[in-house]
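Structure (tokenized):
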């Protein structure tokens, strides 16, 4: 596989401006000059320290969540996820988020992918994903507006969620992470 195209000369950043800052997002405008002298203005949503996604598995069942998703104004099937706080590493963020969102910790945290991105052309977000096993009950207070429901699914049901055309699991990061977790468990 020839990946030399990933090593091309990066565009020169001529200027960088914060256009809008909200409680959650910062929209930046970057004026760029490419190696062929083409100039373009790009916008991106700047990120903080990154985020984590936990794929809890108790040996028989994956623990998915049902949480309100404002972007689509509906409840979505997914996994524990959240931002990495200042001074926190991804593993500790994963453990904290599990305890806050579903009331479980994990003794075994297995990285699934060094990082995942979502819409990298406009979002500056790094997601670290982990398979979490040897679960134990442990709850921390979180910032959720309502309790998050846990939906337990077997390995077979997890495969159906990934591969069925009309599956209720639609978030790409959750689909990719569940697939990686099944692969790590030698289930696919």
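Design, position by position:
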């Amino acid at each position: 596989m020839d990946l030399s195209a990933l090593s091309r000369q990066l565009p020169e950043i001529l200027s960088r401006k914060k256009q809008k800052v909200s409680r959650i997002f910062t929209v930046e405008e970057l004026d760029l000059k490419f190696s062929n002298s083409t100039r373009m203005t790009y916008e991106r949503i700047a990120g903080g320290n990154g985020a984590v996604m936990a794929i809890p598995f108790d040996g028989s069942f994956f623990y998915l969540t049902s949480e309100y998703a404002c972007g689509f104004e509906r409840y979505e099937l997914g996994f524990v996820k959240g931002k990495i706080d200042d001074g926190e590493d991804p593993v500790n963020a994963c453990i904290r988020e599990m305890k806050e969102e579903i009331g479980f910790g994990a003794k075994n945290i297995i990285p699934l992918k060094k990082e995942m991105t979502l819409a990298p052309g406009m979002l500056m977000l790094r997601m670290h994903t982990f398979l979490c096993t040897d679960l134990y009950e442990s709850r921390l207070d979180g910032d959720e507006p309502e309790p998050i429901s846990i939906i337990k699914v077997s390995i077979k049901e997890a495969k159906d969620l990934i591969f069925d055309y009309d599956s209720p699991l639609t978030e790409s990061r959750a689909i990719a992470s569940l697939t990686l977790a099944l692969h790590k468990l030698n289930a696919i």
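Reviewer-requested clarification: The chain has three helices and ten strands. The chain has a mean pLDDT of 95.
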